[in-house]
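User: Could you go from structure to sequence for me? I need the amino acid at each position, not a summary. Structure tokens:
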């Protein structure tokens, strides 16, 4: 029986999923973040090794009996000098000839679209879109929090705190966000926010992005300025999606499949509705679909695909039923 291991690395957590060729889930496991720019390469190596050993041990399968594995890692391919290092990051747990590494955006695409042609947009800690069409591949976005990741949780958190500073100064009317931020950080004075953010409490990328929840809370409380940030995020994400479509050379009249993954889309219509509007305004058609499978399931599907035996329809149905 062929077995496949999928690893979906993220900015906040890393998921491991082991399946067989029928789509049966044999084992799963969760570890911490895989963003090596934040945790370092050695911690990434240790975390992956721990996760792989734990997952395989739960199914009583040795690495030598694993058919193939795919590891989706954040920031993979964004430093050509480190590609060989990341390609070997799962050694010695996984034989080099029976696993591949790639960017974690592939996990989201493979899961959401079950490996079919189309685009998946990710809006989580960061933001990125990836698509495949007639054998062509393309990505857009994912440039990092300092000069990219538009429309991501980090971006919304940063823009939200910018709005708070404007509210504090009197450069913008004070809405619900103002008191929500003050209460969250227990600020004695508004300027104490500088110590809270520039200090150690939310210095890391994954921690800072969690502040997006404050903007969401404010928007739900009727703060129109906070709500506008989600509209701006949707416009940015639509631009990323359309850039991928253009690179893929999709005919203008084709309603290409489009799905999504990432924590921001779990907010419901907060982001989905303005994204549909932004894409409609661009004048190119899309067929919106809900994600068929999770990103970690997508990683397992990619492992099967790279191993030369893609899962069939019945296996996909079985996998979906077990991982909902």
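Assistant: Here is the amino acid at each position, in order:
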């Amino acid at each position: 029986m062929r077995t496949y291991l999928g690893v979906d690395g993220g900015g906040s957590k890393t998921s491991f999923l082991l399946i067989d060729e029928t789509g049966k889930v044999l084992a799963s496991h969760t570890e911490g973040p895989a963003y090596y720019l934040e945790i370092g390469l050695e911690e990434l190596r240790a975390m992956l090794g721990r996760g792989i050993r734990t997952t395989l041990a739960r199914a009583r399968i040795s690495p030598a009996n694993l058919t193939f594995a795919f590891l989706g890692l954040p920031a993979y391919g964004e430093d050509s000098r480190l590609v060989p290092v990341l390609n070997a990051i799962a050694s010695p747990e996984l034989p080099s000839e029976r696993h591949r590494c790639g960017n974690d955006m592939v996990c989201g695409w493979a899961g959401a679209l079950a490996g079919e042609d189309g685009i998946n947009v990710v809006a989580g800690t960061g933001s990125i879109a990836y698509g495949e069409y007639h054998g062509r591949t393309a990505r857009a976005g994912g440039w990092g929090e300092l000069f990219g990741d538009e429309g991501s949780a980090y971006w919304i958190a940063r823009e939200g705190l910018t709005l708070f500073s404007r509210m504090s100064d009197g450069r913008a009317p004070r809405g619900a966000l103002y008191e929500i931020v003050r209460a969250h950080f227990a600020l004695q004075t508004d300027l104490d926010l500088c110590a809270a953010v520039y200090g150690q409490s939310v210095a890391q990328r994954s921690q800072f992005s969690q502040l997006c929840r404050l903007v969401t809370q404010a928007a739900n409380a009727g703060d129109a300025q906070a709500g506008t940030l989600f509209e701006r995020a949707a416009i940015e994400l639509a631009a990323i999606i359309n850039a991928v479509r253009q690179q893929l050379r999709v005919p203008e009249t084709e309603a290409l499949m489009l799905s999504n993954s990432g924590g921001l889309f779990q907010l419901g219509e907060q982001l989905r509705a303005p994204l549909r509007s932004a894409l409609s305004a661009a004048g190119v058609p899309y067929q919106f679909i809900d994600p068929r499978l999770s990103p970690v399931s997508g990683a397992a599907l990619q492992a099967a695909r790279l191993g030369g035996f893609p899962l069939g329809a019945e296996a996909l149905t079985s996998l979906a039923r077990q991982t909902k």
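One structural detail worth keeping in mind: Residues 116-291 form a domain with the Nucleotidyltransferase; domain 5 fold (CATH 3.30.420.40).
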